[in-house]
Amino acid sequence: MKRRALAFAVGAAVVCLGFDDGGGKSLREAAQGAGLLIGAAVRSAQLSEAAYSSTLTREFNMVEPEDALKWEVVHPEAQRFDFSQADQIVDFAARHGMKVRGHTLVWHRQNPTWLAEGNYTSSELAAILENHIKTVVGHYRGKIFAWDVVNEAYDELHPGTLRSTIWRDQPGIGLAANGASYIERCFRWAHEADPQALLFYNEAEAEVVNPKSDAIYAMVRDFRQRGVPIDGVGLQMHIANLHADVASISANIQRFTALGVQVHITEMDVALPVDALGNPRPEDLQLQADIYRQIAGACLSHRLSYSGCTAIQTWGFTDKYSWIGSHSKQTQGAALPFDRSYRAKPAYLALRNTLAARSAIQ
Q: Is the pTM for the entire model greater than 0.90?
């Protein structure tokens, strides 16, 4: 046990030295040179923490509110919106020259009680949803450049089919029989509220070519053919093991970008096995770095002018505030590029060096 702890401490020291000695470019500078947005999901409460805010502004050129724009936070009562938390993040980003992604306008989770248990008719629910989308997007018109309009609409248990939600069929907004028509209406409402914003469909467990991503691909292709205002697809990229199918991920990115839409990697983290103290094995840190490097390489290989893979975003950036390993008795953690003390990990170096290498040949 002591030997393992010593090995981890030595490994952490080497990582820290590697970061200092690397000098030169930050992750943000390397991304800018590569023509890519590099982002992180953030929490407004942590912006006052010096290490959090300084690392964020030094290393990233894009942020996304982790929870501040979800219904339960931004629309806590039927007749009241609360933009205070999201405004802090948007204002912080503006002061530091960072772009902001909006997450998320429509989801089946984290909805307030007044909405989830309101027993609304389909027409009433449609009116509530339209008002919510147009109010939130309108509030940030010209300030938020891209939105996850709809999040995780497809089912995990029955891949390729839409999940049952209040929006689709409980009671739905009157279009349950028409497949993805309710999603289409959400995109049209968001576009009406801010015609300049980029509109994304965001999904989990659709990173590789599989039945779920096949269904999303068919929906996006249909939307593009019919002029529905969809600009991109978000692939979340929560990787729960150390065996990512990078070839399939790359093929999936390629087929979406061939439709003329952008791909954003929106919520990347790579969970590692950890001991009782939350520490991973040094060898797993290197395997994790390899995955970050390979995913960044897959994105960059499909980097085009308008379409293509144009952003990589992690779900948080420091293990101190990661949802991976945030509960007691967790056996996984250490999923992000910075450790709990804001020291750069091999994953950080892999990301930075991959982007810097692309920047060098631009």
A: yes
